[in-house]
Specification:
Layout: E1 2-6, H1 10-21, E2 25-29, H2 33-40, H3 51-60, E3 64-67, H4 70-74, E4 79-82, H5 97-109, E5 114-118, H6 126-137, E6 144-148, H7 158-163, E7 168-171, H8 175-185, E8 192-195, H9 197-228, H10 232-240, H11 261-274, H12 280-292, H13 295-304, E9 311-315, H14 330-340, E10 344-348, H15 353-359, E11 365-366, H16 370-375, E12 379-382, H17 387-390, H18 394-400, E13 405-408, H19 415-419, E14 424-426
Parallel strand pairs: 1-2, 1-4, 2-3, 4-5, 5-6, 7-8, 9-10, 9-12, 10-11, 12-13, 13-14
Helix pairs in contact: 1-3, 5-6, 9-11, 9-12, 11-12
The structure holds 1,4-dihydronicotinamide adenine dinucleotide and uridine-5'-diphosphate-glucuronic acid.
Length: 436
């Protein structure tokens, strides 16, 4: 099939690359000329394991192309994906400007019948709006069907998630469009769930909100565990053995960040409020997360009183490992608050340092390696559980610092291991360990 993908971010580029890999002819269009230029040179504009190799392979095979011109992209397309951003606005609602602009771009350039699929995460009712905009602006005498096809990939494992997803959700009122999409996705061998447009749009928000709820729930339990002397790791494991609960997304830590959970939970609260519904549960999930992201700071202040003049190493800056994405990362809040407290911050991340420099306070210093960051510090905050960070042993910390004090926001180590070393170790939802 001939496919056009609009937007080459985490979702658009991964979708385009994977669809070309299963044999479709894909042309990706982006308004960002630099991005398009880089992709044409075989450089992925984002860090995502396996993506660049697959992109180059399919580009060279002639199944994948890149352009900045919408008319070129839409000329032969049977299917057009909208995969542009829907960022959060000041009041929490989703900003639909980019999606609406693409609808106009499609209407103005379409020359043949096509199915328009929204992959961007959009509030219930948006696909209908997309169709309205297209019909209002359309120039040629062509038929357009719309479908909602929300995306469930995770950053850091986006390529593998696309090939091995749990389900593909297709929401459309057109049987023809549903069948075409089912055919298009067939080579993936992933179960397809067909529904109406509004339900598909809601499935996306409900899924992200539910996952965020699981995280805030276990984080609340972890805070209780600390007060009651229980171990949240064991609690999560024991809970997860019940199939009805499941063992995934019960990793206590310093909260969820990223470009989606924070934005989509806020958007759903707003979506609810527009139909006069107070989504109290989700509001609490958000509040718990906001506090959790500051937890290492709170623990350090309780331990030391003032952090003024202290040197603190931040290990890991991205919102999760294996991505360069810094959106809503806990490192942003932590570094801002540490700087405000008068602490010196020495930051290190294997991949996202360039992106971090644009977002963290200017007072933050950067180290060339985790070892250098630790050696320049008095205290260590583990923010992101990169393998490179987890591979640092307590013996390393003993060698690098006179009295290692570690605040681990991702529970990278077992307490048994910590007890064997001369380290002070504070983690999440577990007892603190002090050297003898
Ligand atoms: N990042 C993720 O892991 C996931 C994101 N989503 C959703 O997918 C959507 C896209 O997210 P990301 O890929 O992270 O966004 P992104 O911000 O990384 O990329 C969006 C791209 O669209 C381009 N763009 C904007 N307007 C355009 C136009 N008129 N024509 C052509 N290109 C245009 C931008 O230049 C940019 O390259 C959002 O709605 C997000 O909520 C859904 C699942 C996973
Ligand atoms: O809509 C989206 O954009 C995507 O949002 C999340 O994917 P992503 O944000 O890339 O990453 P996750 O692995 O879900 O992690 C999100 C945050 O939750 C945190 N997390 C995750 C799991 C857990 O048990 N505990 C926990 O604190 C992570 O550290 C991270 O900060 C969802 O998992 C995807 O299904 C969805 O498509």
């Amino acid at each position: 099939m001939q496919i056009a993908v609009v937007g080459t971010g985490y979702v658009g580029l991964v979708t385009g690359v994977c669809l070309s890999d299963i044999g479709h002819h894909v042309i990706c269009v982006d308004i960002d000329e630099q991005k398009v230029e880089r992709m044409r040179k075989g450089i992925s504009p984002i860090y995502e394991p396996g993506l660049e190799e697959l992109m180059v392979k399919n580009y060279e095979a002639g199944r994948l192309n890149f352009t900045t011109e919408h008319n070129k992209a839409f000329k032969d397309a049977d299917v057009i994906y909208i995969a542009v951003g829907t960022p959060q606005q000041e009041d929490g609602t989703a900003d639909l400007r980019f999606v609406e602009q693409v609808a106009i771009d499609i209407a103005e350039n379409l020359q043949k019948d096509a199915i328009v699929i929204t992959k961007s995460t959009v509030p219930v009712g948006t696909n209908e709006k997309v169709k309205r905009i297209i019909l209002e602006h359309i120039k040629a005498d062509v038929k357009v069907e719309v479908a909602s096809n929300p995306e469930f990939l995770r950053e850091g494992s986006a390529v593998s998630d696309t090939f091995n997803g749990d389900r593909i959700v297709i929401g459309t009122e057109s049987e023809e469009a549903a069948n075409t999409l089912e055919e298009l996705y067939k080579p993936f061998g992933i179960p397809v769930f067909k529904t109406d447009i509004r339900s598909a749009e809601m499935i996306k928000y409900a899924s992200n909100a539910f996952l965020a709820t699981k995280i805030s729930f276990i984080n609340e339990i972890s805070n209780l565990c600390e007060k009651l002397g229980a171990n949240v790791g064991d609690v999560a494991q024991g809970m997860g053995m019940d199939d009805r609960i499941g063992n995934k997304f019960l990793q206590a830590g310093i909260g969820y960040g990223g470009s989606c959970f924070p934005k989509d939970t806020n958007a759903l609260v707003q979506i609810a409020s527009f139909v006069e519904h107070e989504f109290n549960l989700l509001k609490s999930v958000i509040q718990v997360n906001n506090e959790q992201q500051r937890l290492l700071m709170k623990k350090a202040k309780e331990r030391f009183g003032s952090l003024k003049g202290m040197k603190i190493a931040l290990l890991g800056l991205a919102f999760k490992p294996n991505t360069d994405d810094m959106r809503e990362a806990a490192s942003i809040i932590l570094s801002e608050e540490l700087v405000k407290e008068g602490a010196e911050v020495i930051a290190y991340d294997p991949i996202s340092m360039d992106n971090a420099k644009k977002l963290l306070p200017e007072q933050v210093q950067y180290a060339g390696s985790a070892e250098e960051a630790v050696k320049r510090a008095d205290v260590v905050f583990i923010v992101t559980e990169w393998n490179e960070v987890k591979e640092i042993t307590f013996t390393d910390y003993e060698n690098w610092l006179e009295i290692p004090v570690i605040f681990d926001g991702r529970n990278c180590y077992s307490l048994e291991e910590a007890r064997k070393h001369r380290v002070e170790y504070h983690s999440i939802g577990r007892r603190s360990i002090y050297p003898d």
